[in-house]
Amino acid sequence: MLAELGNSSTPSVSFEGDAEERDKSVLVSLLEQLTNSTVLCPVFLDTPELVVVVSIQRYLRDPGNEEGSQSASGYFFDVTVTDQISQVKCHLAPVLNSLVHWNCLRVGRGIHLTRCSLVHDEKRLNRCFLQIEALELVAAECNPSLSIPSPSIEPLRSLTTSQRGRDLLRTLQMETPLKGGRLHYLPLWNNNDPYGREWAGPKTPPFPNVPLEGLGLISLQHLSMTWRAKVGFPHLLVRIMHKSRLRYYGRPQTKVDFPYQAYFEVADQSGMMPLVLWNSLCPEWYQSLHVGTVLLLHRYSVKQSYQRRTWATPCDPQIKSLRTIEICLNPRDPRAEIQIVPPQQVKAEWRLPDIKYNFITRLELDKLPEGFTCDVIGLVIFVGRCQRIRKEDSSEDFYSYRWVHAIDGSTEQPFVLELFATSQPETFQQIHPMTYLVCTQMRVVRELRPSGVMLNVPYLTTSNESQIFISGYHKGQPYTKDPKVQGFIQWVKGQRENDVMKRSVIGGYYSFPPAPNLFQEYCKNLDAEALLTSTSELKKEIESLHYREHKRFILQGIIVAVEYICHTDLAARLKAFPVQEVDAFVGSSSQPIRHLDSPEKDTRVTRQTEQLCVNPARRHQRQSTPVFNRYSLRKKLSNPPMGMLKKKRKMSQQRVLSPKRPAAVQDADVAASTKGFSPGAELPVPPDKDDHGRCNAGNSTDGNSKYTWKSPTWSEIREHLSEHLHFGQLLSESIPQRFVYKHRDFLMQQHNLQAAVCSPVPAVSKMELQSFASACCHDYYTVTIVGVNHQVAVDVVFLPVLMSRDSHRILGLSMEVHDNALASVMASGYICDKQTADNNQLKEMPSCQDQIIKTAADLDNTRVICILDVYHHGEGKSEVILNKVYRMTD
Predict the structure, then answer these.
(1) For residue range 798-844, what is the model confidence (pLDDT) as tens digits?
(2) Distance between CA atoms of residues 793 and 725, nearest Å
(3) Based on the domain organization, do 382 and 472 belong to the same domain?
(4) Residues 577-592: what's their mean pLDDT?
(5) What is the pTM of this model?
(6) So what's the pLDDT on residue 93?
(7) Could you tell me if 484 and 534 lie in one domain?
(8) What band does 332 get if pLDDT is binned at 50, 70 and 90?
(9) What pLDDT is stored for residue 889 in this prediction?
(10) Which of these, 739, 699, 732, 673, lies nearest to 506 by C-alpha position?
(11) Are residues 594 and 472 located together in one domain of the fold?
C-alpha cells in the first residue's frame, strides 16, 4: 500500500482510467523517448506525468564525482517511482536533495515529473540511468488501494532496440546505487542502523557440530603475552560479553566498499579482551553476534588497541581486563574464520564466564552517582517522538534518539531514559507504552549545578555498548534469570491493565532535563555569547533544519504581546481549517517560516524555491482541486494549440533550474500561488488581520473568552519591523496523546521516522492525531518576542505544566511555590495549585488566566533571555516552543 505515513486529511490521488489508456506505461514511454533520441539533453514534459514514490534510498557520494563535489551534499538519493504498471529507479539530481531533507519528497507521495534526462556514467561500462531534474509535488496523497507493481523488468523490454536502452535495462537490473561506484545503500535518516539486503539476518551455525578436538586453543591471557612473537595464531574459543552499536566511518573520499566497524568484548576463563569486526564482515556477521554467543575464531590478527574508544563497564569484577591489545577480524589479508558454537554444544569444562548484569530499581537510582553504569527493566508508560540531532555543526550526519518513561513498581517515579539508536531498528522503532523494556549499559546523568544543587530527577542515557530489548525479544536472553528481572515479572503480574493504560502517553512536545534556575548555570563551561542567536538569524537557522531535527536556540529580546488560547478554541481552529500543504506555496519546502506582516516585506524566495518552481500558476490551480484523474488530465492536454505549447515550453525552460531568473519574476510567481497562506503553518493567517485581530481581549469566534496583553509600545514597534515570524500556533503533532493499544501501529507510525520503502503489508487505516484524546490540558500561550534592535519579531508557543495535574512533563521541575505571575510561570515552566500551604495556612493562588495575563505588564520593556526548542516536523512545518525565560538579572 502506498498510503502516507503521517496522514493528511486531503483527498487521495486516483490512478484509475480506461483500460485502453493503461495499456502503455507512461514511464516506459518516457524512457523510450529518451533512449531513442539522437541527442542526449533534458526533456521538458509539457504534460507532467503523475507517478508515486515507492522508495527513497541514500548512499555516499563517489570520491571521484565532480558534480557531487560542487554540491553541498555528501550523499546521493535514488528514488523508485511507479505509474502502477511499471516501476523505475531514478537518480535524484543533487539540487533536489533538500526535498528529501525536509521530508517533502517521501514514500507514498505523488509527484509530477517535469524535467528528466538520461545520464551515462562515463567511468563505468554500460551504465546508464534516468535522472529527475525537476518535479512538482502533488498536494494529495496516493490512493490507499493502489497496488505496488512487481519489480519485474518485463514492461521495459521494449527499450532493448537501442544501445542506450540496453544499457539502461542492464543498470536497472542491478541492486547497487545508480551513480558512482558505491555498492550499498545507507539508512535514510542515520548511519548507525543496518539497512539493505547485504545485512543478512541471524546466521545458523555453519556446522551442526563444531569440532574442537586437536585445534590447540590459546587463552586470551597467553595471547596477550606472546602476540608480538607469533605470526599465525591458534584458534580462540570465547564468549561475547559486550556489543557496541555500529560505527560508520564513510566519507566521500573513502574508497572502502563497506566502511563499517563494530566493537565487541569477548572473554574466556583467563580474561576479557576487545574484538573489532571490520568492513564487509559487518553486514555478514553483525546481526548474528549477540551478548552470550560463543565463538570459535581463526585467522585473526592482533594489534595494540585503540584507547580513545569508550569501554563497557564489566559487571563481574573477577574477570581480568586485557585491554592493551585487540583482536581484529578482517575480510581479507587474511580473511577471518568465524564459527558460532550452538548453545547445546557449549560445555561446562570450557569454563567460559557467564553473562552478569547490574540491574537497579528506580528507588536505587536516586542514590547512584553521576556516570554510574547499570541495567534497567521497566514497563513503558511514555514514548516520545523520534528526534534527530547533528553529529557536528553543518554535518549531514545525525543521531536518532527518543525519550522514554518506564516504571518498575519500586516507587511511583518512572525511569527517564534517553535512548539513542543502538543499531537495533527492529526494537527502537517498536517501542510503545505497555511493553516491557530492558536497557543495558546505561549511564546515570546526575548533573551537579555550580550552585551545588543536584539535578532534581536523574536520568539514564545510552552508551555505545547499550542494548535495548522489548516484548517479543526477551526469550533466550541471558538476563531473564537475573533475580531483579524475576522480581519485576512478579510485580507486573499484579498490575491492572486499565490502571497502566491511564498513565500511558505517546508523542508530543517533551524537553528534558529542565533548564536550571539561573542563566549562569545554564552556560556553565560555555561561552554565553557564543550560544546566543540573533532574531535576524533565527529564520535562516530554522530553514536549515532537517526532518525531525531538534535544536535549541537562545535569544535575547523583549516580550511585547501574550495571548492565552484554551483547548476548545484550539479544537475549533483545527476543525475549521485543513493542514496546509507544501505545494500551496510553490514547492517552497525550504521555508518553514511563516509569511510576514505585509507583502512588501516578504523575502521567502530562496535559491531552492527558484530551482523547484515549475509553472506555479498550474500548480496553484491544482491546489484548489486536488482530486483529479491522471488520464483525463492527459486527454485534456494531449492536443494543445501550437502557440500554447510553445509558450509552455518557453516558460518551463525559463523557470526550471534557472539560476539567473530575475528576483521580481520569482516574487510575482510566488505571490500568484501563495496569497493568503502562511508557509509552515497549519492554518491560513491573513496578513492584514494578524496581530490586531488576536490582541483584543474578550473577543472570540467560538464563544470562549480570550485573554491577551500587549505592550503599549507594540503598535509602534510593529510598524518598523523588517520581519515578523509566526510560530505562535500549537501544532497537533506537539500534543501528546493517550495511548490506545489497538491503534498502536498507527501511533508508532506517527511518531517514528518516515519509512524509506513502501511496505507490502496492509498499512493501518487512515486516522488523524486529533481523534485521539490528549494526554494533558493543551491550553497554551502565544508569546511575541521582539529582538533588542526592534527589527525582527517572532511568535512562539509557551506550554506551561499545571502543577496539580499528573503530567509526564512535570518530572524534573522544582515545583516550588511561586506567585503565578506570568514572569514566574515562564521562569519555572509551571502553574501552581489554586491553593498552596504557607505557614501551615492555605493560601489562594491567582491561577485564573485573566489574573495571570494581567501580570504580563511586569514584563513590559524588560529585556529577557529566551530558551527556544525548535523541531522540524517535515513538509515545511516547524515547531518553536518557549522552554524558559530568564531576566537579565538572573
Answers:
(1) 999 887 777 888 888 887 888 889 999 999 998 887 655 455 554 55
(2) 6
(3) yes
(4) 32
(5) 0.82
(6) 94
(7) no
(8) very high
(9) 75
(10) 739
(11) no
Q: Give the residue, 206 or 237, on which the prediction is more confident.
A: 237
- Where among 172, 203, 232 does a domain terminate? 172
Provide the number of structural domains found in the chain: 4
Determine the Cα–Cα distance for residues 101 and 592; give it in Å rounded to an integer. 13
Same domain, residue pair 144 and 235: no
**SS3 state at 20:** helix
What distance in Å separates the CA atoms of residue 554 and residue 538, rounded to the nearest whole number? 10
**Residue 231 and residue 144 share a domain:** no
690 lies in the same domain as 565: yes
**DSSP per residue over 638-691, as a string?**
SS--HHHHHHHHHHHHHHTT-TT--HHHHHHHHHHHHTT--TT-SS---GGGHH
Rounded CA-CA distance 438/358 in Å is: 12
Inter-CA distances, 813 with 451, 552, 777, 783, Å: 17, 19, 17, 21
β-pairing verdict for 247-248 and 271-278? unpaired
Joined together, the cell numbers standing for residue 741 give 493499544
Q: Check whether 4 has a pLDDT greater than 90.
A: no
Between 851 and 427, the higher pLDDT residue: 427
Residues 6+ apart with CB under 8 A from 835: 842, 843, 844, 845
pLDDT at 30 over 60: yes
Q: One-letter amino acid identity for 777?
A: C
Q: Mean pLDDT over residues 619-637, rounded?
A: 30
* pLDDT on residue 588: 32
Half-sphere exposure of 498 (CA within 13 A, CB side): 0
Place of cell 512538482: 136
CB–CB of 408/491 below 8 Å?
yes
Angle between helices 26-36 and 163-172 (to 10 degrees): 130
| Contacts for 521-530: CB closer than 8 Å, 24+ residues apart | 521/449, 521/450, 521/451, 522/867, 522/886, 524/449, 524/450
Nearest-angstrom CA–CA distance, 847 and 867: 24
| Structural domain for 242, as ranges | 220-350
Do residues 536 and 497 share a domain?
no
Residue 758 lies in a domain: no
Contact 517, 814 (CB under 8 A): yes
Q: In this structure, what CATH number is given to the domain that contains residue 493?
A: 2.40.50.140
Instruction: Kindly state whether residue 626 falls inside one of the protein's structural domains.
Output: no
For residue 648, being part of any structural domain is answered with no
Over the chain, what is the mean pLDDT?
77
Per DSSP, 541 falls in state H
The angle at the Cα of 635, spanning 630 to 640, to the nearest 5 degrees, equals 125
**What Cα–Cα distance (Å) separates residue 718 from each residue in 413, 675, 724, 791?**
46, 21, 8, 9
Choose one of 350, 378, 408: the last residue of a domain. 350
- H helix or E strand, kind and range, residue 34: helix 26-36
The alpha helices in 327-418, defined as continuous H runs, are: 362-365
Inside any domain, residue 636? no
Both 318 and 391 in a single domain?
A: no
